[in-house]
Amino acid sequence: MPDFRQASRQLVALLRGATAQSMVERDSRDQTILIVEDSEDARYFMRLALEDLGYLIIEAEDGAKAVELALGERPDIILMDLSLPVMDGIAAMEKIRASDGLQKIPIVAVTAHQETDFRVGAKAAGFDAYVTKPIDIGFLSELIKGLLT
Questions:
Q1: Which backbone phi and psi does 111 adopt, to 5 degrees?
Q2: Where exactly are the structural domains of the chain?
Q3: What is the DSSP pairing of strand 129-132 with strand 32-36?
Q4: CB proximity list for 48: less than 8 A, separation 6 or greater
Q5: CATH of 31-148, one of 3.10.20.580, 3.40.50.2300, 3.40.50.10380, 3.40.50.300
Q6: For each successive 10 residues of the chain (149 residues), what is the average pLDDT?
Q7: How many CB atoms lie within 10 A of CB 116?
Q8: Sign of the CA dihedral with 97 first, then 100, 104, and 109 last
Q9: Of 34, 97, 82, which Cα lies nearest the Cα of 60?
Q10: Which of 5, 31, 41, 106 maximizes the CB count within 10 A of its CB?
Q11: Residue 110: left (phi > 0), alpha (psi -120 to 50), or beta?
């Protein structure tokens, strides 16, 4: 969808705010984020915004691929959609958590479900945080910083 991608680039450019402070923050980052999202457009938007903040991004479109990439790449943090093909986000998170050396990687549930029971269920399943769509990149950035420190 070219219109969505153009709009995403424009939004990221606005969020970029090329101030001296953001340039310093961008230069100080070397963390890898695994984005797990079945929507190509949503992955694209998150990748643009997070790369602009200096993060290295890897992507998976389903839960099984997420587990494979987490085992192979060992990202610093994972943003996991809950409704995924092949293997849902909760099952993927459980497999990642059960793997040697991956128990402490922060995993954030990312979903369009804003109901309290989804939030409670995600936390009870073992997610470190919960973010609803549409994603507020400023909030997500602060959440990631907090989880990585």
A1: -155, 160
A2: 31-148
A3: unpaired
A4: 8, 9, 12
A5: 3.40.50.2300
A6: 55 49 47 96 95 95 98 97 94 95 94 79 90 92 93
A7: 8
A8: negative
A9: 34
A10: 106
A11: beta
Contact 105, 128 (CB under 8 A): no
Q: What is the pLDDT of residue 19?
A: 39
CA-based nearest residue to 141, from 40, 17, 39, 20: 17
State how far the Cα of 139 lies from the Cα of 89, in Å rounded to an integer. 21
- What is the model's pLDDT at position 7? 56
Q: Is the whole model's pTM more than 0.90, yes or no?
A: no
Beta bridge partners of 79: 35, 108
Question: Would you say 43 and 59 are in contact if contact means Cβ atoms under 8 Å apart?
Answer: yes
Pairing of strands 77-81, 107-111: parallel
